[in-house]
C-alpha cells in the first residue's frame, strides 16, 4: 500500500470512528444523576423522524408555593409505560443528566428518566406527611372511629 492510500484509509477511519466513539461516550456517561418528586402532568411520544418520549412534572416544595416544572426525556419503552401509568399520581423519578448530545434526535432535554416510583405520602413539613389516595375515594385515616348513622326502627302496633 502506498503512503497516499494509507493516509486516505486512516483519515476515513478516523472520520467514521470519531463520531461513533463520541456518541457511545455521551450516551453511556452521565454528568449527574438523582431523583425528583412531583406529579407527572404531561407525557407524549414526539418527533418527526426520531420519536422520543417527552414529559413534564410539576414539583411543589411547600404547599401554596409556585410549582416548578421539570421537563424530562424517556428512552426506554418499559420506563415510558411506567410513567404513563403514573400520570396524575405523585411520583419520584430517577434520572441521569447527559451533556454533549448534539442533536434532539435523542431527546429534547438533558434529563433522561431511568426509573419511576409511586410515592404514597406527601411531605408537608419535616415530620408531617399526608397519605395519598391514588385516585380512590378518600376515607378516614386508619384507626379513626367513624360514627355510625342512626337508623330509625319502625314502631310496631
Describe the structure.
The longest helix is centred in the N-terminal third of the chain and has 26 residues. Strand 2 and strand 3 form a beta hairpin. Strands 3-2-1-4-5 form a five-stranded antiparallel β-sheet. Strands 6-7 form a two-stranded antiparallel sheet. The protein has two domains: 30 residues; 101 residues, Nucleic acid-binding proteins (OB fold (Dihydrolipoamide Acetyltransferase, E2P)). It is α+β, with helices and mostly antiparallel strands and 157 residues long. The chain has two helices and seven strands; from the N terminus they run H-E-E-E-H-E-E-E-E. The protein is elongated.
Amino acid at each position: 500500500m502506498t503512503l497516499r492510500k494509507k493516509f486516505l484509509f486512516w483519515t476515513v477511519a478516523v472520520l467514521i470512528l470519531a463520531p461513533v466513539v463520541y456518541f457511545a461516550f455521551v450516551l453511556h456517561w452521565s454528568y449527574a444523576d438523582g431523583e425528583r418528586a412531583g406529579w407527572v402532568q404531561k407525557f407524549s411520544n414526539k418527533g418527526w423522524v426520531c420519536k422520543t418520549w417527552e414529559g413534564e412534572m410539576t414539583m411543589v416544595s411547600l404547599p401554596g408555593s409556585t410549582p416548578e416544572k421539570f421537563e424530562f426525556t424517556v428512552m426506554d419503552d418499559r420506563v415510558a409505560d411506567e410513567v404513563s401509568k403514573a400520570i396524575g399520581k405523585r411520583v419520584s423519578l430517577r434520572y441521569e443528566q447527559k451533556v454533549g448530545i448534539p442533536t434532539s434526535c435523542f431527546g429534547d432535554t438533558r434529563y433522561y428518566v431511568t426509573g419511576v416510583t409511586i410515592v404514597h405520602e406527601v411531605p408537608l413539613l419535616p415530620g408531617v406527611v399526608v397519605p395519598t389516595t391514588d385516585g380512590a375515594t378518600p376515607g378516614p385515616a386508619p384507626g379513626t372511629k367513624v360514627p355510625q348513622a342512626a337508623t330509625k326502627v319502625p314502631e310496631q302496633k
